[in-house]
Each structure stands twice: as structure tokens, then as C-alpha cells.
Amino acid sequence: MFDRVVICCLALLLTADANSQISARSCQILLQPNASRSDFRAAIELQSHLSQITGKKPPITTNAKAWRDSAIVVGQGPLAKSLTAGFNWAKLGNEQTKVVVKGRRMVVAGGKPRGTLYAVDRLLSQRAGVRWWTPWASKIPINPNLRFNPMDWSESPAFESRDTFWFHAFDGDWAVRNGSNGFSAKLDESRGGKLEYEGFVHTYYPLIPPAKYFASHPEWFSLINGKRTADNAQLCTTNPELRKAIVEEVKTRLRNNPRARIVSVSQNDCFNPCQCPVCRAQANQQGSDSALVLDLANYVAEQIEPEFPNVAVDTLAYQWSRHPPRTMRPRKNVIVRLCSIECNFAYPLDSKENASFGDDIRGWSKLTNRLYVWNYCTDFANYLQPHPDYFTIGPTLQFFAANGVKGVFEQGAYQSTGGNMAELKAWVTAQMLWNPKQDPNALIRAFLQGYYGQAAPKVMEYMKLLANEAKSWNLTFASSVAATFLRYGVMRDARKILLEARQKVSSNAALAWRVDQLMTSVDYVWLSRWGQFKIETEKAGETWPYANRSQLETRFLKLLSDVPRFAKQWTPVTHINEGGLTPADFIRRLPPGN
After folding, report:
1. What dihedral angle (degrees, nearest 10) is formed by the CA atoms of 473, 479, 483, 488?
2. How many CA atoms lie within 13 A of 170 on its CB side?
3. Please, are residues 101 and 120 in contact by the beta-carbon 8 Å criterion?
4. CA atoms within 13 Å, Cβ hemisphere of 406
5. Cα–Cα distance for residue pair 182/162, rounded to 1 Å
6. Where would you tag: which of 2, 137, 171, 181 has the fewest CB atoms within 10 A of its CB?
């Protein structure tokens, strides 16, 4: 019966006016019998947003007769095929979107398991102007006359792995709406799932625990200065018995985690690679210690491939293993994850200031077609401190794309809200990870206007001030609060600019709160350098801007802890550095002063 309805609907389709449009206000949303959980969520997502845009809630139905009228089919199935004659759905990438409008009928679908959700959200953002800035702030235009013109539109994300590793970006709805598929995001089956890992990084000791193996197999661990050790060290990656043990452990873990598509076999987060003669000979022959980690990853990947043909082995090119080997190539099922930890983030990573890293990414890209990058976009010692990489994120991601990088992990303040300009960085990053051909500065302007309203020009002025000053500093992932770009004159001007920004939106509580949150970064520096800035103020013959420190401390703590009624999805700041320092502890540790 269902097939006869499809044939009937197809006949109606062929006689439809191809130049007509679909009215978002008067259509129905049609799900097909094979709809998945993510298809259902996609239909609800579309219904909810069209309702807010047009003021009328379109019904969701599974009755194929709706296809005779104006209808939007969500997800793959017979009706979708009827509108896309000649299109091979079997070859659709698992994250690829497909949107077709013909006559008064529309298909919004994609590859499984996430493509249909992406198709809905890309349609809403690219054709209806919807933006999801943060979990607590979005833009949903009001347009009762919204119509979808004839189109045949398909797109795929530029990177296969897209991880915006900021605390608020773990929100499942924000992640799927902005195209993030990172392993840490709360992306359940109804949200299309995500790229699943077994382990993530620094897995040598989790795979081969020293407490279990060192006493019986010291030869499996690094030889350092003539002595085997498991203290702050690595594994003897060339040892044949160690390799077999790792393979068996990896197989056991993958059997227990059938959803995993990547398994980590990667060095510990320290130095001390093995100095035994076999390891040294391999490293010397390849001109880099990366040979030690890569050869082990290749071995494990080869051994697990017959049982796990869809699983890749992930390893690091990090610190002592960052430089590519001369000739050793990763197997097709090996991912090399290059880390930018030594870079100056005041500049794009293709700049002369980061020439060494640029050479490494180009070198690795010649050896493999599955290169990932671990990048850093916050100050881990001072999450709240200004970290003005604002204008380098986009060019850096474009550099990655131009060199064949397939996956990007952008590590921000991940333990709580409160990273400096986390909201902007996460959103711009997510957009560029989907399509790095966009103009990153246009994205920045769009975010500022959408998130800060009339305060946007002043916030941009603040960003440019800090970004320009930071160019004289080696902006690492852990810059000191005593950095010269945070000197008195700069922070005086930064405070003045943000006070002017707040004045622009003082009548809007939500926008004023967002500027206040941005001001906490400036407050953090003033509190940290209180005594020094007082002296600088006196030297300059200027007026000290605060009544007393206690007043600023109270305001600072209140802003970081109180959840406003207009931002219920926001959560209080609990970490102001990676070590777990709380805002209250930060205040308690300040030296005495008024």
C-alpha cells in the first residue's frame, strides 16, 4: 500500500510547478516508516524552529498521503528517492547533507547516522538565518512568510573529526546544531552519536600499567641512563613481547566497546623515550623519535585490522615525537595527531613565528592522508586571563585544511565555563571546522553582533587592542599574568572600552550580563596585579578606578557564581585554571591589600 502511495505521489510531483516554493507556514513534516531516532529528533528540531520563525507549528505525520500536499520529508526513504531521481543514496557520506526542493515538496536528509540532523540544522542556519551562539543564547528570526525556493543542495564537513573542546560546547544540542562530533560532546543516539574512541591520548600506561607489569617485565619500559624505569617515562616500543601484550589489550578493549572507531596507542604525557640500543637505532635511522611511536602504532594497526577493519589506531606527534620521520609512513588505519603545544598563538600557525610547526605539519601531510591536529586556544594556567588568539583561529584552521588535515581537536577551558571569550572561540571554531573557506573575520563580526548587540563595536575594539599587544609576546598555552601585553596601560584601556561597551547595552539585562562576563577577564588581571597597578597609576598621575579591592572581589565572585534567569543553561565557573583553582581560592590567595 505504501509503495502505491509513493508512485501516486511521484506522478503528482512530475506535474508540479518546478518554480513554486514551499511555505514554511503551511507545510507538513513527513517521517517515513524506516525513521531512526535521529530522524525523529531532526523532525522535531525542524518543527520547533519553524514554529518559532513563522508563528505556526507544522504538524509531524507518518501518513504518506501528506506527500500529495505541501510537505517536507525528513530522512531517507522511498519518498526521498522519488524526489531525487538519479541520486545514489547508497554513496552518501555518513555526515553528508542532501536538501532538494521541487514544486511544493522538499527532502531534508543526509547520511546515517548524523546527516539528516545536520541537513535540518544547516537548512535552518543557511536558509532561515538561525544561529545557536551558545546553549543559552541563539538567534531565531521572525519571518511568517519564510519560503524555500527550488534547490538541490548537498554539502559535507571539511574535517572528519571536529572537536570544539570547550565546556559549554559539550552540550549535545549546541554540538549537533553547530556540526561538532567531538568525543566529549553529549551526543547520544538520538543526536546522531559521535566519533567514538577507546581511550583518547596518553594511553601507554593505561594499556600496560607499571603496577601490574614492571616487576615481572622491566624490559617493557624505558631504559634511561642505563636503568629501566616506569617513573615519568615511556615504553620500550620495539620490545616484541610488549607489542604482543599491547595488541591483546587493545583487542580486549575493542571487543568490550564495539562502537569505538578509534583506539589510542599513544605516548605518556612526559618525556624520556627509551634509550635502549634497538630504540635508539630506529630513531636515529629515521631522524626522529617519532619513529618509536609510529612503528608501534603501525604494528598494532596491522594486527587488529583483520578483526576490526573499521577501527583506526591513533598516536601522537607530541613534544619529543613531533617531527616526522624520514621515510616511515603510517598505515592507512593509523591516525597521527600532531600537537601545537610549543607554538605562539598570537600568530597563525602558518606564520614565520611558528615556522617549525609549519614544517612539521607539511612533513606529516606528505606521509599520511589521515593527519589530525591537537591545537590549544586558551591559557591553562589562567583560564580567565585574556588569551588574544581571536583573529588567528580562523587562518590556522584554513592552514590545516590546506595541508590535508582530517581532524582537529581545539582544546579550550574544558572543566567549567569561564574561559576568556570561550563563547566566540567555540562558535567560530565550529563554523570553520565545517567549512574553512568562510571568512573568519565575517564570522567574528556576526557573533559579536548577535551575542553582544550594540556593544559589538566596543567588544571588537577590546579584542583588537589585546591581539595587537600580544604580538610582542610569546603567547603560549600558559602565559604569565605578568605578561607585558597585560601591562597597566593596556588593561586600563581594556577596562575603559568594556565599560563603554556595557553602557551601550545597559538597558538590556542579558546583553549587559554578557559584557560583565567578559569584564571578569580584565578584573582577573587587575586583582592579580593590584599593587603593581596602583604604583603605575600614581606614576601616571591618574585616578585609581576602584573604591576598594573588597568591592571588586565581591562583584567578581558574584558574576562567576550567580546563574541569571535569562541564561539558565549557563553554569557557574568552578575552575579558573587546569589545576582546579576555584574563584574563591583565587581571591583567598591574593596578597593583603585595599
Report:
1. 120
2. 15
3. no
4. 13
5. 6
6. 2
173/193 Cα distance (integer angstroms): 12
Q: Once rounded to an integer, what is the mean pLDDT over residues 36-45? A: 97
d(C-alpha 208, C-alpha 394), whole Å: 39
138 beta partners = 132
Residue 575 has pLDDT above 70, yes or no: yes
| Statement: residue 11 has pLDDT above 80 | no
User: Distances in Å between the alpha carbon of 193 and those of 186, 188, 271, 409?
Assistant: 8, 5, 35, 17
3-state secondary structure 197-262: EECCCCCHHHHCCHHHHCCCCHHHECEECCEECCCCCCECCCCHHHHHHHHHHHHHHHHHCCCCCE
The H or E element spanning position 161 is: strand 161-165
With contact defined as beta carbons under 8 Å apart, do 161 and 408 qualify?
Answer: yes
Pairing, β 262-264 against β 312-317: parallel
pLDDT of residue 1: 36
227 class by beta-carbon count within 10 Å (0-12 exposed, 13-18 middle, 19+ buried)? exposed
Residue 552 clears pLDDT 70, i.e. is over it: yes
427-452 residue pLDDT tens? 999 999 999 999 999 999 999 999 99
245 closest CA partner among 191, 303, 310, 332: 303
Category of 453 on φ-ψ map: left (φ > 0), alpha (ψ -120 to 50) or beta: left
Q: Is the pLDDT of residue 483 over 60?
A: yes
State the Cα angle at 563 between 45 and 528, rounded to 5°.
125
Kindly report, residue by residue over 366-389, the tens digit of the pLDDT.
999 999 999 999 999 999 999 999
User: Which position has the grid cell 509503495?
Assistant: 3
- Note if the pTM is more than 0.85: yes
Q: What is the DSSP string of 287-356?
A: TSTHHHHHHHHHHHHHHHTTT-TT-EEEEEE-GGG-SPPSS----TTEEEEEE-TT--TTS-TTSGGGHH
Specify the length of the chain in residues.
Answer: 594
Greatest pairwise CA separation for the chain in angstroms? 87
Cβ atoms within 10 Å of 17's Cβ, excluding its own: 10
Gap between the Cα atoms of 231 and 587, Å rounded? 35
